[in-house]
């Protein structure tokens, strides 16, 4: 089964201005039930960083500008990248979200939650087959091993 990154990412980006406060960013995350916000330089109309819920937890004040809290430079993957490369990078770098690009333009975001949805789909497909589940086979699947590890690292 070929798993394409373009089928397992979020295309609608919710962004925050680099001049917004930590409180404003937290409000956006809460309202949209998300944990990552691409940070936009509104003057340049360009994404300059990524803000995570974890970054907000480290903020000393609610009025701290997002530009001082964000991670930069951006970590991105091209839309044609193999899903395994993305999962490997999430695990190795302990990063739970990457921006996805096409022709140097950001077209989406892939997060650890997207990986959990993918794992759920794989498991449902497996459950619907007539073949019995062999737990050893499941644990031997490298994609599932990495996804399970990622889920554990995310604290889910």
UniProtKB/TrEMBL annotation:
Residues 9-66, 70-127 form the CBS domain. InterPro entries: CBS_dom (IPR000644), CBS_dom_sf (IPR046342), Diverse_CBS-Domain (IPR051257). It comes from the Bacteria. PROSITE patterns: CBS. Transmembrane segments: none annotated. Pfam families: CBS. Keywords: CBS domain. This is CBS domain-containing protein. It comes from Bdellovibrio bacteriovorus str. Tiberius. The lineage of its organism: Bacteria, Pseudomonadati, Bdellovibrionota, Bdellovibrionia, Bdellovibrionales.
């Amino acid at each position: 089964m070929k798993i394409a990154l373009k089928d397992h990412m979020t295309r609608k980006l919710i962004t925050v201005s680099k001049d917004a406060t930590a409180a404003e960013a937290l409000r956006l995350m809460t309202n949209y039930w998300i944990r990552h916000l691409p940070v936009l330089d509104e003057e340049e109309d360009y994404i300059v960083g990524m803000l995570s819920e974890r970054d907000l937890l480290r903020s000393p004040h609610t009025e701290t500008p997002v530009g001082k809290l964000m991670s930069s430079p951006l970590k991105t993957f091209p839309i044609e990248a193999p899903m395994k490369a993305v999962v490997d990078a999430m695990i190795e770098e302990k990063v739970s979200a990457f921006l996805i690009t096409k022709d140097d333009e950001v077209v989406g975001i892939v997060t650890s939650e997207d990986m959990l949805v993918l794992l759920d789909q794989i498991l449902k497909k497996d459950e619907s087959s007539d073949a019995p589940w062999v737990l050893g086979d499941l644990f031997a699947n490298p994609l599932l091993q990495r996804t399970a590890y990622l889920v554990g690292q995310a604290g889910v």
